[in-house]
Design brief:
Low-confidence stretches: none
Number of domains: 2
Number of strands: 4
Helix content: 40-55%
Strand content: 5-15%
Structural class: alpha+beta
Distance between the termini: 33 Å
Strand order of the largest sheet: 1-2-3-4
Shape: globular
Mean pLDDT: 93
Oligomer: single chain
Radius of gyration: 16 Å
Bound molecules: zinc ion
Order of helices and strands: HHHHEEEHEH
């Protein structure tokens, strides 16, 4: 099970060395010339989430997972700040106000509509969702 926690590929993906240099995909992990046309879509964190889900359908899919936490609270938070978002860490995700004055809540692309409406419903006021998958592309 190389893609499951403590597996060989898992360990190399989540190594500090790789996490620091690779925000979504690189030639050391899942990029190669044969998938060149989809490089912008590749994201090893989402890949590990998929692998964990296929191994165990009850796997926890959220931003408290080790390889997401630091990425969300550092990299993504900084990307949002750089793009003039107001950012707050709430309920294990990021919420705030986008540059157009709208409230947003960061969500995971695998979360169900039910989970999202429960999360949004627990926030005061009206919030739109933005997917981590889309934010990862903002920085480029
Ligand atoms: Zn990489």
């Amino acid at each position: 099970m190389p893609l499951i926690e403590n597996g060989e590929i898992y360990k190399s993906l989540v190594s500090n060395h790789h996490q620091e240099d690779c925000t979504s995909s690189c030639y050391d992990c899942i990029r190669d010339y044969s998938n060149q046309n989809i490089h912008h879509l590749l994201d090893w964190r989402l890949g590990l989430d998929l692998a964990r889900l296929s191994y165990d359908s009850n796997s926890k899919i959220d931003f408290t997972v080790s390889y997401w936490r630091e990425y969300i609270t550092n990299t993504i938070k900084n990307v949002l700040l750089k793009h003039k978002y107001i950012v707050e860490e709430v309920k294990d995700t990021l919420i705030g106000i986008d540059p157009f004055g709208e409230n947003y809540c960061l969500v995971h692309p695998f979360w169900s509509a039910k989970k999202i409406s429960k999360l949004i419903g627990s926030l005061p006021g009206h919030y739109k969702t933005i997917s981590i998958f889309d934010i990862s592309k903002l920085k480029n």
